[in-house]
Design a protein that fits this description.
With 496 residues, this protein is mainly α. The protein folds into two domains: 428 residues, Growth Hormone, Chain: A (Up-down Bundle); 52 residues. It has 18 helices and no strands. The longest helix has 48 residues. It is globular and about 75 Å long.
């Protein structure tokens, strides 16, 4: 491929990252309106979780499919599913239809966000050049997250939430067309081994069952919940045992024998499980507690979008002075500051405090992502770069899936407890309407302070849990820094 072709393909793949960024911000901006219109506050966790779960379970499958039919065709198929899922969500007449369409979109997202990193690794052999490209990836995502809240908020306020999903359709079609024309991969090697369908099916059943079990907490009999979770865990354990005898497993066990790689995976899990709390709930904090419009609520994402790009871009020069784990520590501390701000904030916290918290969140996320993504590919064996890359996506999406579900449970418990204590004066329907500033004006004004306190309790508990996850990640990072230092000392001793 010529430099021109590589540049165009890179831009086309960056569009897929932009689609993901648009969806992450527009859906969070539109959620209050969706919940109010479709009466889905109790299923809000599912709206977020099924997209992430679809992404998670499909990510390693897209990697394997790329090895068999080529990354080009796999990416185009994934982008098509993403576009179709987006279009169907825009047409959703009820919450169940929207959740199903969002699942389809999530399956496509698994390929559109993971396959480009495999393609980048093959187009850009030099790690530093690849890190620069990953900076552009963060930039495209950041630009989309900057534009997303503004455009999404304007659309929700001016037209309807349905139209925020149509934004992805032309972007996805352009990306598919450019990849078709300019990505020339006749040299791409193909796997001849059969796809591990048994492992794929067992992984899907296990993960879906586990998510269902978590979502059932508080809504179903405890014995049934434990039975579903127990069955899912057994399925995943059996899958792990059977995968030892498979020639080309979905998830090779050798990945778990690489300690540096495992530390990368664990940090990805904790960090991504925590920061999604701010992305999902900061617009609701602004709209539900501060009575802002959807546009202003979505704008809570904008400072983080700018600083995400900054955090990502400073990683390469900072690496000249700091070790990889210390760069990650810097990002973790920034994220901790963000959640500390949210934890100490009260019901009437000024709007600008949310913007400051978002700025710290964005910088920390950008720094952690850029460093960890490159570190995964450097810590993995060269032959394992594709599967290690896709697996890093898998665990990030799984982490976000299950924490989103747990956050949803925390919110539902707070809402139900508050409604119960209100003695009938406040209903769940009223709490649905509170989340959207356009409908909250019709609520009894004398009950608004009490309703906002109920919503705040749920939001506050979610932010506290996220802070705990970040503290754990920092402790693991400190241990990893020691291992990193010991390894450096050993190398220096051998050299001398």
């Amino acid at each position: 491929m010529s430099k021109r072709d590589i540049m165009i393909v890179t831009c086309a793949l960056l569009l897929s990252n932009a689609m993901s960024g648009l969806d992450n911000t527009t859906i969070n901006t539109a959620l209050p309106a969706i919940i109010s219109d479709l009466h889905g506050i109790e299923l809000m966790g599912w709206i977020v979780a099924v997209f992430l779960l679809g992404t998670a379970v499909s990510t390693p499958l897209w990697s394997k499919l790329g090895e068999h039919i080529g990354n080009k065709r796999s990416y185009q198929l994934a982008a098509t599913l993403f576009v179709v899922g987006s279009f169907l969500q825009g047409m959703a007449p009820n919450i169940v239809f929207l959740i199903l369409a969002r699942t389809l979109m999530g399956i496509g997202n698994g390929g559109t966000v993971s396959l480009p990193y495999i393609i980048y690794a093959r187009m850009y052999k030099n790690p530093r050049k690849r890190m620069q490209v990953l900076g552009f990836v963060s930039a495209s995502y950041s630009m989309a997250t900057i534009i997303g809240p503004l455009v999404g908020g304007y659309i929700v306020d001016t037209f309807s939430w349905h139209w925020v999903f149509y934004l992805n359709v032309p972007i996805g079609l352009i990306s598919i067309a450019l990849v078709q024309i300019y990505y020339k991969v006749s040299h791409e090697t193909r796997q001849t081994q059969a796809v591990d369908y048994r492992g794929a099916i067992m992984m899907t059943i296990g993960l879906v069952g586990l998510l269902a079990g978590i979502e059932m907490i508080g809504n179903a009999n405890l014995i049934l919940v434990l039975a579903v979770i127990g069955f899912s865990v057994i399925i995943l354990i059996v899958m792990g045992i059977l995968e030892e005898n498979v020639d080309d497993p979905i998830i090779p066990s050798r990945l778990f024998k690489n300690l540096p790689l495992m530390i990368d995976f664990v940090l990805f899990t904790l960090i991504w499980g925590a920061f999604i709390a701010f992305l999902i709930y900061s617009p609701m904090w602004a709209q539900g507690l501060l009575a802002t419009s959807a546009l202003i609520g979505g704008a809570t994402q904008i400072p983080g979008a700018f600083t995400d790009f900054i955090g990502s871009e400073v990683v390469a020069p900072i690496r000249n002075f700091l070790s990889p784990q210390r760069v990650i520590a810097m990002g973790i501390v920034m994220l901790m500051i963000s959640f500390i701000i949210m934890v100490i904030s009260g019901v009437q916290t000024p709007y600008w405090v949310l913007l400051i918290a978002g700025a710290f969140e964005g910088f920390g996320n950008g720094a952690c992502f850029n460093e960890l993504q490159v570190k995964v590919q450097q810590d993995a064996n060269p032959t394992d770069i594709p599967i290690a890359t896709s697996f890093s996506f898998l665990i990030r999406m799984l982490s976000q899936t299950f924490t989103a579900s747990i956050f949803g449970i925390i919110m539902n418990n707070a809402l139900r407890d508050g409604v119960s204590k209100a003695g009938g004066s406040i209903t769940m329907k009223m709490m649905n309407e509170l989340s959207d500033a356009s409908s909250s004006g019709s609520l009894p004004q004398h009950l608004l302070p009490q309703m906002r306190t109920i919503l705040y309790n749920g939001l506050h508990n979610i932010m506290r849990l996220s802070l705990i996850l970040m503290i754990i990640s920092l402790l693991i990072n400190i241990w990893a820094q020691k291992l990193e230092h010991d390894k450096f000392v050993k190398r220096a001793a051998k050299a001398s």
